[in-house]
């Protein structure tokens, strides 16, 4: 019934998203690998890739004006054309700084396209089905991005990769051109307020920034690390794909555990667990060179933590805000913080990776350690104030936040009994471990003082 009533009418939107995410995942990794094989330094590659995230941040601010003016269908056509021009521009003329400009244009167009698609999903999703639609969106986004990595295992010329990326964008345009879905009405853009959100949810703001740093570093710098280590593009592709799949697999257990034990503990886990994996990547280069299986396993484990940080941060913000606060406005600000981290990461870590793997992973470990320690020092949210965890991919600027089912009080109340049962079970677990309880009490006491 759900498929026929809700999913089938918007299947063209899901297909368009899958095609775009596949091309996005493919080119994000390929460009860094190609530039490295061409002899460019990690710092220059980081600068080129940072331009993509700068374009994405500006799309979050300015693209909605065009969408409101000319409509979703025409906007999608315009942004698709811009993206295809940018992709083919890479094949026509090779210059690092020209490519940086093209990456900026690609980032703007890609995130603008996601805003259009997510607006449609939000419009066609009923209040009862938004959680399911958002879950399907998350699965499609992760799987398609992972699939894009595997395309790089094929023996194709660089020009063919850019042509394939253009074809994927054009196919997504075709899916939108034949759809009969009514165009949605996009709400006026609201300005971000970092100080306001920091006063409400400081841990959520820090977590979203650190999550952006990790994801930005992963897509731009991790391929270079794997390439330097193995000198095999196919190993890079599998490493990236398995890390993304690790992020997808972790969403359900992380959500379940965070509902039971709280976002603070899970954010601390994500930080400290990331530190452990990063230390292994930093200290075991010899073993990783001899065993790509170990590299794949560590990548999968790293994906479980790094792709969980942002949705946990959004959940923490939802726990801390009261009913008078706007979820969409808060999500916009958190995503802007996430985008800032994604933009900064390749600039800093490109220089670090060019100097040594030790410095590269050391900086990432410091970010993760700060998140873990600050999470433990933060005030604990009472069980009765906790909201429901929803896996939210950090994709576009703000429209996806409007699909978040936590905006609907009836949906929250419907799922709150499960949350209450989880927290009650957590209380039994906590009482059975005196040492853990004492440590939690001391940590909460320091945060309150």
CATH superfamily (homologous) name: MFS general substrate transporter like domains
Instruction: Provide the CATH top-level class.
Output: Mainly Alpha
Overall average residue pLDDT: 80
Largest sheet: none
Q: What is the element string, with H for helices and E for strands?
A: HHHHHHHHHHHHHHHHHHH
Determine the fraction of residues in helical runs and give it as a percent range: over 70%
Number of strands: 0
Oligomeric composition of the shown chains: single chain
Domain Major facilitator superfamily (MFS) profile: 9-380
GO molecular function, one term: transmembrane transporter activity
Region (Disordered): 404-449
Subcellular location: Cell membrane
Task: Please outline what is shown here.
With 449 residues, the chain is mainly alpha-helical. The chain has helices at 2-7, 11-37, 42-70, 72-92, 96-124, 130-150, 158-177, 194-200, 202-220, 222-230, 233-261, 263-283, 285-290, 292-306, 309-320, 327-355, 357-377, 409-431, 434-448. Residues 422-441 and 445-449 have low confidence and may be disordered.
SSE layout:
Layout: H1 2-7, H2 11-37, H3 42-70, H4 72-92, H5 96-124, H6 130-150, H7 158-177, H8 194-200, H9 202-220, H10 222-230, H11 233-261, H12 263-283, H13 285-290, H14 292-306, H15 309-320, H16 327-355, H17 357-377, H18 409-431, H19 434-448
